[in-house]
Amino acid sequence: MNSSTTVWSIAPEAVYERLETGPQGLSGEEAARRLQRYGLNELAEPVQRALWLRFADQMTHFMALLLWVAGILAFVSGTPQLGWAIWAVIWINGLFSFSQEFRAEKALATLKKVLPAQVKVYRDGTLQSVLARELVRGDVVQLEEGDRVSADLRLVSADSLYVDVSVMTGESLPVARFAESAQIREVVPKRGGKVLVHGGERALQDPVKAQEIRNLVLAGSTIATGRGVGVVYATGAETEFGHMAHLTTNVKREPSTLEVQISQIVRIITLIAVGMGILVFVLASLVTHLELKESFIFAIGIIVALVPEGLLPTVTLSLAMGVQRMAKRNALVRRLSAVETLSATTVICTDKTGTLTKNEMTVRSLWIPATNHGQTLTVTGEGYDPSMGKITFPPGKDEKQQVKLLLIGSALCSNAHLIHPSGSSRWQEMGDPTEAALLVAALKADFDLEQLQQDYPRRREVPFDSRRRMMTVVLDWQKQKAGENLPFLTSGRNDLPWENLAFTKGAPLEVLRCCQSILKAGQVIELTPGDRQIITEANDHYAKEGFRVLGLAVRADHENLLEASPQTLEQQLIFVGLVAMFDPPRPEVPEAIARCHGAGIAITMVTGDYGLTAEAIARNIGLVKEKVRVVTGDGLTHLSDAQLRQILKYRSGLIFARMAPEQKLRLVQAYQSLGQIVAVTGDGVNDAPALRAANIGIAMGLNGTDVAREAADIVLTDDNFATIVSAVEEGRTVYQNIRKFITYILASNVAELVPFLAMIFLNIPPALLIMQILAIDLGTDMVPALALGIEKAEVGTMKLPPRKKNQALLDRALLLRAYCFLGIIEAGLGMAGFFLVWGSYGYGLAELQAVTTSILHHTADPILMAIYAQATTMTLAVIVACQDGNVFACRSERTSAFKLGWFSNPLIWIGIATEWMLILSLMYFPPLQAIFTTTPLTNWQFALLLSCPPLLLGAEELRKFKFL
Questions:
Q1: Phi-psi region at 250: left, alpha or beta (left = phi > 0; alpha = psi -120 to 50)
Q2: Is residue 138 classed exposed, middle or buried when 0-12, 13-18 and 19+ CB atoms within 10 A define those classes?
């Protein structure tokens, strides 16, 4: 443990003095001084592998090793130009891959800073949110369920506090934490029953670990349930987390499923390339009777031509660009595999509050019991500004007192805070928006919240949890005196107030189950079945209009409320009234839901809210239109897994209400067992299992807990459902873009292969030389493929059904289009250009076959070799020109290029310009002419080149028109 080990052995009151702070926290100036003294609360970045080692990885993977061997063989066979060219391919692709991987890592590192960890601390006497890295020794931190602890803390108060310390100990179950001082057990050595401690000696102390001390909460742990306040005693490297060196080592990133699939594709194509090289070697030796050396060189060329060297770096960049685009649309991707999975999502299980709605709660109505079916009061105004609305109290004294009790109890049974920054007209909430709305309602009734908290200090709290759906506080009620113009309940002993009073707020029906009495017309009377019916009807009336409703009850008796168990404390309650609040739906959600339905994605609302409220909101936003079936958490417990699967498979219009977190997990697993790809949203600590189990876990960035964000694949920085739909669209776009540039690359490989097959079967010289193939690979498979990898979403992307889970990236349709259509057209035009050049000099097929041997053996006269050089240059230029048309053809598998906009992707034109700068350099720059055996083309030949892009693009447009 660190130097502040004794902080756990002192009383909570002494902790402040020991750490030189106070209950109100540090001042801003003192915090700044300590930050300067102790440094930022962060650990040093883990040491990463040296850049040169990471670059070496790009030079030694499977494809690179194959090309290194091919280069060596080229040198051995006496063709050093080919060897150097092959090695140039390795270096160029290695540099490109390294730069793109480095760029992708930088992009992800930048995105991590979008949602820096925040903590709630007391500074200058007020609760504030500050960056976790700015915590200092002596800061007073408020802890709530779902918070990730960012520094080592000594607790000074704890209410039902349980902490997940699995990061430190591996213990899966949360452990209880308390504020009381702890003492280490002394070990007294004995022998034969005789104590061996002599006078003046101290007993040994039992060894103890910091994570085992009950009043310490350590960095890296998370708050499972409850609330507490702790004082920071260690930050950064001084924390126990910082001392565990193995936790700071770099974790190797696992490849995504898409990257694995791409790697498999590369291996398959590479094996095909090797097979084709061997086939060409055998046929060239046996059929065309080439020398072994020449056949060997051609075989190497075939292998190099067909190996897709640029595929992996282009995939990496496409994913990185997709992640950046999603970040701009408020979706922070934490795992690259999520981008691919989004394209196959079939079901979205979404929360209601804050995701489908604005999470801007406003109390609109109050209800108290009365003689005839209750009394309703309207609350005006919207948002968190209390000056924008008011509450009109009822005229009767007893009713007025009861409304005040309802407002005071609701406000004091709350952990939210309202902040009114100086110089700003806008009020801000800190904490749960529902509880903030209760504070605003109390302010509208002219209550002073600070004075109420001073008059009725909290003595105990039983925090809200998703099973009880209630929260209870015990208040010191002794300052309440009879005759004051405030709501009161007297103890029946000379009208003296109760010593303590307990307020319970929560789901109305849950609160009602715990009530035996009711406050009506100033009297506490027995709660009858008729009263229960009236309260239930009032709750349902609000819920059907889309209101979130809370019930409030009070307990006042002679039992010690501070010592009673939580179960006992929340029994024999007195029902006070209902608070109805409205959270308006986000205006963009109906359109987003319609887009999901058009894309074949089912949406299921999974909420902890009341069923009727959920149904009203669902109808309002267009989630359900016809018959609705609301499945409650209680109802779900009575369904077997088989019955649940049947409901999910055959029923529509489903809404799951009053769902516990473990039931959300069960629902996700049921959908997955039906073969669905499930995206699920969550914000609470108990949502983490469902977020991890889902194919795509989506956490809330604004109101979500740290635990939920850590478990998720994607974090929404605006908590908006429409952002989920945008992320799905981006995921589909990335997947489509990868298919586009794979098609583009494979089509050119066919055009590179056919000249050698023609050489073997037609007994003609190869229409393309090995060095020219390398020029095509370096000139056409780089920038244009890169441009296809960053294409924007096509119109109609969200009108297509989700792709099947088991659909291969390299499927039959892609192979047929690339190899048997686009590739054949390129190859045909390339061979036609080759024959046209020979024909212009009077050489037909027979004449060409007659001079093939002399050309292959380099014994032909210079004029004949000059014609051959021009013919191969023409083939090279035709393939590049066809690729210009191919890049536009590959921009969409279905949509016409004329509808996409010719200049909507400027990088395509940069790629085309790059291609032609390279080709013209090969034609007119003498050193390159000598290396690549090229020569300038004539005017009529350039004119023919202009016809190649429209010919290929026109054929593709005709295919789309006829067959799609």
A1: beta
A2: buried
User: Across-strand partners of 506?
Assistant: 470, 551
Q: Directed axis angle between helix 906-924 and helix 862-889, to 10°?
A: 180
User: Phi and psi (nearest 5°) for 130?
Assistant: -130, 165
Counting beta carbons within 10 angstroms of the beta carbon of residue 928, is it exposed (0 to 12), middle (13 to 18) or buried (19 or more)? middle
* SS (HEC) of 96-125: HHHHHHHHHHHHHHHHHCCCCCEEEEEECC
**Backbone phi and psi for residue 327, each to the nearest 5 degrees, phi listed first:** -65, -40
End-to-end, the C-alpha distance of the chain in Å comes to 69
Q: Measure the CA–CA gap between 479 and 496, rounded to whole angstroms.
A: 10
Joined together, the tokens standing for residue 957 give 């447009």
Helices (H), 700-809: 706-711, 721-762, 770-780, 783-789
- Tokens 């958490």 correspond to what residue? 633
Tokens standing for residue 313: 């770096």
- Binned at pLDDT 50, 70 and 90, residue 340 comes out as confident
Q: What number of other Cβ atoms are within 10 A of residue 441's Cβ?
A: 26
What whole-number distance in Å separates Cα of residue 603 and Cα of residue 626?
Answer: 15
Distance CA 416, CA 436 (A): 5
Q: Are 711 and 699 in contact (CB under 8 A)?
A: yes
What does the alpha-carbon distance between residue 133 and residue 117 come to, in Å, rounded to a whole number? 8
Query: Given 147, 152, 164, 351, which residue is catalytic?
Result: 351
The two structure tokens encoding residue 796: 């109609």
Structure tokens at 555: 């307990």
Question: Which DSSP letter does residue 678 get?
Answer: E
Q: 232-258 pLDDT, tens per residue?
A: 998 887 887 776 543 334 334 445 556
Per residue in 504-560, pLDDT (tens digit) is: 999 999 999 999 999 988 888 899 999 999 999 999 999 988 898 999 999 986 567
* 368 token code pair: 């108290």
CB contact set of 676 (below 8 Å; sequence gap of 6+): 346, 347, 602
| Residue 848 to residue 851: CA distance in whole angstroms | 5
Give me the amino acid identity at 922. Answer: L
The rounded distance, in Å, linking the Cα atoms of 430 and 117 is 16
Q: What are the backbone dihedrals phi and psi of residue 425, each rounded to the nearest 5 degrees, phi first?
A: -90, -5
777-800 per-position pLDDT tens digit: 766 667 788 888 888 888 888 888
CA distance 81 to 75: 8
pLDDT value at 884 more than 80: yes
Closest CA to 156 of 209, 225, 103, 231: 231
Average pLDDT over residues 197-217: 62
Report how far residue 198's alpha carbon sits from residue 184's, in angstroms, rounded to the nearest whole number.
Answer: 21
Residue at token pair 């190099």: 304
> Which pair of structure tokens corresponds to residue 217?
């909460």
- CA torsion sign for 46, 50, 51, 53 is negative
Query: φ, ψ for residue 842 (rounded to 5)?
Result: 85, 15
CB atoms within 10 A of CB 701: 22
- Evaluate whether 206 touches 184 at the Cβ level (below 8 Å): yes
- What does the DSSP assignment read for 571-636? SSEEEEEEEEEE-PBPTTHHHHHHHHHHTT-EEEEE-SS-HHHHHHHHHHTTS--S--EEEEHHHH
Q: Is the pLDDT of residue 3 over 50?
A: no
Residue found by looking up tokens 């909290």 in the block? 458
What pLDDT, in 10s, does the model give residues 613-641?
888 888 888 888 878 888 988 888 888 99
- Pinpoint the alpha helices (H) of 766-808: 770-780, 783-789
* Residue 351 designated active-site: yes
Rounded to the nearest integer, the mean pLDDT of the chain is 81
Sign of the Cα pseudo-torsion (346, 347, 353, 357, in order):
positive
Does this model's pTM top 0.85?
no
Q: What is the pLDDT of residues 636-686, one digit of tens each?
A: 888 899 999 999 988 888 899 888 777 888 999 999 999 898 999 887 666
